[in-house]
Design brief:
It contains 9 helices and no strands. It is an all-alpha fold.
Length: 270
């Protein structure tokens, strides 16, 4: 049964060949590649083609767009990552609760603890853990559909129109923003971990001594948390890619492969 279903994914569907045999993500990759070539030829200062690895990505995406089964496997692989990060987030939420509970206890038992130092350290740890909850959970938030959206307007459209809206906005607004953020924050991440402005790294094996530290009295290292922002943007971009795959399936009539997250009660965002 599984083999039959997998084989059927790559069979042509009724309707226009350009719409049913190729995933829309392949057309987006082709447009992006042609734009990069055109800007390279005219010598634009704002080159889309200034990343050497982008050509390989474009070719891989175009190749995968001809195989619905392979593209669906990619989507499932990405969502395993979001499942893992969601499980970690739940555990970190309990850690934040434990740290803040400890802060309350030490506040009323300051005669038995060095409250000024201990309270500062646990507060910093709680804030950093809370930050990790957001960084690790942003990709699952996109998957669960909790990102801000004008639901009371969006909910009135048919399913296919919703898929088109999400696909276009993810491909041409959200995904470019994530890529831009990833590229801009790489330098910030390196500086947080001790990288010098010249691009060199400090010598020695005690790498934690070069990490950026918090400005409060506890002086706990915040460099790894700040550097993790880059990792969060990368996972965010992967999940946005998974969403474009799912909505693209709906656009070409593969509703059994596609998925569209809809709220039972649309929320009014004003």
């Amino acid at each position: 049964m599984t083999a039959t279903k997998t084989e059927s994914l790559d069979q042509p569907r009724p309707g226009p060949a350009w719409l049913t045999r190729i995933h829309p993500l392949g057309w987006v990759a082709a447009i992006y590649g042609l734009s990069a070539v055109a800007l390279t030829l005219v010598g634009s200062e704002f080159l889309l083609a200034n990343m050497t690895w982008q050509w390989l990505i474009i070719l891989v995406v175009i190749a995968l767009s001809f195989s619905f089964s392979a593209l669906d496997k990619v989507r499932h692989g990405i969502e395993r990552v979001s499942d893992l990060t969601a499980a970690i987030v739940w555990r970190l939420a309990w850690l934040v609760f434990a740290l803040q509970f400890f802060n309350v206890v030490t506040r009323y038992a300051n005669s038995y603890f060095e409250s000024d130092i201990l309270f500062g350290e646990t507060t910093s740890m709680a804030w950093m853990t809370f930050g990790m909850i957001f960084l690790l959970g942003v990709n699952y938030g996109v998957r669960a559909g909790i990102n801000p959206r004008i639901d009371f307007w969006w909910a009135n459209f048919p399913k296919r129109t919703k898929a088109w809206l999400d696909f276009v906005l993810h491909c041409f607004l959200l995904l470019p923003f994530v890529v831009m953020g990833f590229r801009l924050l790489r330098g910030f991440a390196g500086t947080s971990l001790g990288q010098k402005r010249s691009g060199t790294w400090p010598s020695g094996w005690k790498v934690w001594e070069t990490w950026e530290k918090s400005g409060d009295a506890s002086q706990l290292p915040v460099g790894p948390i700040q550097a993790f922002i880059v990792v969060a943007f990368f996972m965010w971009g992967l999940q946005v890619l998974a969403e474009t795959i799912k909505t693209g399936f709906i656009m070409v009539g593969e509703d059994d492969l596609g998925q569209l997250v809809e709220s039972d009660t649309p929320l009014r965002v004003e």
